[in-house]
UniProtKB/TrEMBL annotation:
It comes from the Bacteria. InterPro entries: AdoMetDC_C, AdoMetDC_fam_prok, AdoMetDC_N, S-AdoMet_deCO2ase_core, S-AdoMet_deCOase_pro-enz. Its EC number is 4.1.1.50. It catalyses: S-adenosyl-L-methionine + H(+) = S-adenosyl 3-(methylsulfanyl)propylamine + CO2. Heterotetramer of two alpha and two beta chains arranged as a dimer of alpha/beta heterodimers. Binds 1 pyruvoyl group covalently per subunit. Belongs to the prokaryotic AdoMetDC family. Type 1 subfamily. This is S-adenosylmethionine decarboxylase proenzyme.
């Protein structure tokens, strides 16, 4: 097993799915991770998800696998993960650091509730994380919000 895999890292570089920009001053080609959609430019999509009536909320290994599978489904590059189990049968807090941003979770098994935060830039699609996470958490109800973060204002 290589050193990156031992640290929970899948890759040390983001996937090659971003558009290239060339600086006219330097001639250097750089990747641009801002998104252009519907005539807007913005840093990324931020998906906030509440899972109610959820299961599998007290096992950090199950939760980490679900979030890793969700990140891959969304097209993200996993850099590092850290998950903490508070007490036996207690909640879990964790984060996957992605080249394209992050996925974090906080669970309350005693309330059958999990709060998940998915922020991704570039060509990733955070909405593709939902069915993967739902297959793990089997929630009775899901509430979500989908935001564009870092909007570039033009004409201001």
């Amino acid at each position: 097993m290589n050193a990156l895999a031992q640290m929970g890292m899948v890759s040390d570089f983001p996937r090659d799915n971003q558009k290239a920009l060339t600086s006219t001053e330097s001639g250097i080609v750089q990747k641009d991770y801002f998104i252009e959609r519907d005539g807007e430019q913005f840093a990324g999509h931020h998906l906030l998800v509440d899972f109610w009536g959820a299961k599998n909320l007290d096992d950090p290994e199950i939760i980490e696998k679900s979030l890793r599978d969700a990140a891959v489904a969304a097209g993200a590059t996993i850099l590092h993960g850290h998950f903490h189990h508070f007490t036996p049968n207690g909640g879990v807090s964790g984060v996957l650091v992605l080249a394209e941003s992050h996925i974090s979770i906080h669970t309350w098994p005693e309330r059958s509730f999990a709060a998940v935060d998915v922020f991704m830039c570039g060509a990733c699609d955070p909405l593709k994380t939902l069915p993967v996470m739902q297959s793990c958490f089997k929630a009775d109800r899901i509430n979500d919000s989908f935001l564009r973060r870092g909007r570039v204002l033009t004409g201001v």
